[in-house]
Amino acid sequence: MLEGNVSWLPLLAAVIASGALGGLLAGLLGVGGGIIIVPVLDLALVAAGVDPTVAMHVAVGTSMATIVPTSISSARSHARRGSINLEIVRRWSLPVVLGALAGSLLAASVDGKVLAGVFGVVAGFAALKMALPLDHVVLRTGLPTGVAGASLPASIGAVSAMMGIGGGTLSVPSMTLCGEPVHKAVGTAALLGLWISVPATIGYLLAHPAGEVMPPWTIGCVSLPGFAVIAPVSWLVAPLGAHLAHSLDRRKLSTAFGAFLLLVAARMLYRAFG
Predict the structure, then answer these.
(1) Which of 52, 88, 165, 273 ranks highest by number of CB atoms within 10 Å?
(2) Which H or E run includes 219?
């Protein structure tokens, strides 16, 4: 699978590091570890000789699969601290699940550059939200109901599935802008990440980009070696992030990560349009 003089050790180290950082951020900021795992895994797959036209599909599908155990670990830690709004989970569960399944099936049918473009655009907006001091901005009191109330979580599920993320990047700011306390929003997003990752992973396992040769040991768009390396590391580190979320200065962390995320978004947009 590797080409030329590419060494597998730096690639393996990068993938392990992305899993650790992804798990930490999933618990700490509720942004979903996939926001780190997808770009790193995409780079690693291309460096390892995987066709760039399919590398993004595998990166997104594999990242989504790793979110299943990570979200369980993170949600359990937040639940012990009473930081999950179960009413929001009840209202959002079905639309999120349906959106995630639809998003994963759609992602398998589009070009990898489309996925990179979606990732870059959403990551760019998320970076600005995190970098700017907007934590206390509230647009309304309470989440929308009716059609809008179902469309919002369905859209979050679909876009998150196409990006390979657990949904916190979109659901946390959506909840805080509607008046939900940030710690409750992070904990709730961790549990909703499970509702997104399970159906989306099923979709990616069943999917196959038309006409593309997938890397060895890949089922659908999910790389089993990638999952085996990333998932245990993310699962172990996520509770640490959840613990730190209640003790560190979130504004400084959010600003720093927002700046880093802008670079990630720029790289993905270059991959899509460059």
Answers:
(1) 165
(2) strand 218-219
